[in-house]
Amino acid sequence: MMITILSLFVLLFTACAENSSDTDPTTPPTEMSLSEQNLMRAMELTDNAVSAHFTGTGMAMARYYNPYTGARSDETGSVWMYTAAVEAVNAVLHGLQAQKEHGNATLYDENFDKYTGLLAQLYDNADYYLGTFELISYTQTKEWSVYGVNRGNAKGTAKVAGIENVYDDQMWLIRELLESYKITGKTAYLEKAEYLTDYVLDGWDTTRNPDGTERGGITWGPGYVTKHACSNGPMVSPLVWLHEIYKGKNDEITYRYIDAEDKETRKAMQVKKSEYYADYAKKVYDWQKSSLLRSDGVYDDMRGGCSPGNPQTVTIDGTVFRKGITCQDRVGPAISYNSGTMLSGAADMYRMTEDGTYLQDAKELSDKSFQYFAKPDQTHDGYYTYNISGFNNWFNGVLMRGYVDVQPVYGTASSYIDTFQKNLDYGYENFLYEGFLPTNLLVGWSLTANNNRTEGMFNFAFAAEYAVLSRYELTK
To answer: Which residues of 151-169 are buried (b: 16+ CB within 10 A; e: fewer)?
Structure first.
């Protein structure tokens, strides 16, 4: 039998009143702020998800968990799913920091060390997804240690060659590593983020069009030729953050490119990191906007119809390089996170450049994406329904982050953010069961117990959303 949070509160309050002779009935209880309530719920959901989905000292992640049967799946989560746990912990840590900055040091003191410890454990055991391979790219051949899609049997042994790793998985980790660096100050997180950024940008198509311009775009992975929104858009914000970290400093990095005149000669030069990261942020943003923005104002999924149709190499002056790729077709569907990453990207680009074009992009994309992805009164009057098929529960969280990032420069986004708060609260107050939320926040659980397995990354996504909303309430 499910107990709503309201019923549980009544029971607890009654029990306290009956057992405490010291309570002054004329003294009203201290009301918890929405920000603190959001963070408490985020920590509750995170703790329960960690307990249910991770086992052993290596923290192997069961993809599914059913709170009605207590059953974990034998299927292990991919590195992308695993990263959702890191995302939730980072969001909680940022929420705790915001509480401290706004006068609630107690909550910070009681919980911050616990979650920084959990964060370190998650990164340490992410190495089960780590592997090493040699890659021929557009400008060099190099050995890389990156994260594979699937977990290996021991740290550093995961399969990562060809289609066994994809660039977007590295990007989500880059984003979280930089968030971890911001909140903890640990340089190891920054160093790993920069290493993976080097790997991802090594996948940028530096080959030249007939007019000498770069073809641009990052394929889904080194084993693919299609160029996806999810393997480009997620890098814009991290590149801006890296620019900001190195702004005003003299740190340098090697910039590899192809001569614009002969369109063949591979060149390299040392440039300031701050400029390098800013330039790539602009290039990636511009490529995605020009290649994937639809007439209805949201972003399509990828560029297909590619030539060559599979990864190929070319030999220039005795050295082998990856052959450039031209993709003719813009392919759907529009998925919420592909607009979400560009919302965040536009907000960050505007902060970095103060160029009003990015602000206008952010405003238009906010309005168009909400119009496209949020359906009013479809499930309940007064609530907006978002598609939750497939992996959309996680995708929608990226969209919500985009609105949160845009809100400081576009107040209208507040009303879009509120729809996520309402949906989470509806699910929590009506359907919370054993510390878990159902996949469908507005409909609830199945009457058949065995049908109630939940995705680990969704459980962490709901926790992350609550934590992001906690910080948002304090800073909006």
So the answer is: bbeeeebbebeeebbbbbb
